Amino acid sequence: MSLKGDIDLKKSTTRDEITETAKKLFLNKGMDNVGMREIAAELKISVGNLTYHFKKKEDLAEEVMFRLSDSHKPLKPCNTLSELDDCIVFSEKFNSENAFYFKNYACFSRQSEKIRKRQLETFNNSTDFWKETFLNLNAAELILPEGYGGQYQTLAHNLHFTKIYWQDRLDVEQHMGLVLSRFRTTAWEMIFPILTDKGKNIYLTEIIDREEKSR
User: Fold this and answer.
1) Which own/partner pairs from 186-193 qualify as long-range (CB within 8 Å, at least 24 positions apart)?
2) Mean pLDDT of the chain, nearest integer
3) pLDDT, tens only, 62-107
4) pLDDT in tens, 138-172
5) What average pLDDT score do residues 126-141 get?
6) Does 112 have pLDDT greater than 60?
7) Phi/psi class of residue 22: alpha, beta or left (left: φ > 0; alpha: ψ in -120 to 50)?
8) In Å, how far are 21, 24, 89, 92, 159 from 207, measured between CA atoms?
9) Which of 25, 47, 63, 176 is the most exposed, having the fewest neighbouring CB atoms within 10 Å of its CB?
10) What is the pLDDT of residue 121?
11) What is the dihedral sign for C-alpha 141, 147, 149, 152?
């Protein structure tokens, strides 16, 4: 490898270490409570060294958020309830593995316009996924037609933000000493009322069984 390649690799590795450290601190202390000095201290480097890679916290927040966003491609609309359950399980796992972001969702949004726009793009992709899934399942006679104009969209929005703020809910439940809820269970509780009799039968005989076996 060339000398330039060695330098580029070292720079990339350092940026990786910085972003991973920032994620850990954001998770444990809250993004608003973590500054560049604290990140540098955790890494045992100077603030000057840190700002060589990221001039300000806004730049670091963008890097962290965009890496996460780029790793999660939009889900493909589902045609069966089993496919939908797989997507819900994936979303629950993704949320848990990236709690540092979801616990600080609003904080990230305040960091920069670029982050806010990426979050809006993700919101639109999520809404499209749910709406197209509902239309597909309606065509398969698994969910009911809309009871009013925009019902699918409203449910899509509610499911999206339920997932976004799920980590906050878990924090409150833990603080109150309650049994922690599962996003998977809650998502299906929100969808169940619009299932047809055929869809409810599949849910009660197949999906619940899958969920119980996964516990």
Assistant:
1) 186/162, 187/88, 187/91, 187/159, 187/162, 187/163, 188/85, 188/88, 190/155, 190/158, 190/159, 190/162, 191/84, 191/143, 191/155, 191/159
2) 92
3) 999 999 999 888 899 999 999 999 999 999 999 999 999 999 999 9
4) 999 999 999 999 999 999 999 999 999 999 999 99
5) 97
6) yes
7) alpha
8) 38, 35, 11, 15, 18
9) 176
10) 95
11) negative
Q: Which residue has the tokens 């608003």?
A: 32
Nearest to 131 by CA among 90, 92, 84, 82: 84
Provide the pLDDT confidence category of residue 117 given band limits of 50, 70 and 90: very high
CA–CA gap between residue 86 and residue 79 (Å, rounded): 12
- Distance from chain centroid for Cα 40: 27
Q: What is the largest CA-CA distance in the chain?
A: 67
Cβ neighbors of 2 (< 8 A, separation 6 or more) are none
End-to-end CA distance of the chain: 48
Distance CA 104, CA 77 (A): 28
Q: Tokens 């609309």 label which residue?
A: 77
Distance CA 6, CA 165 (A): 41
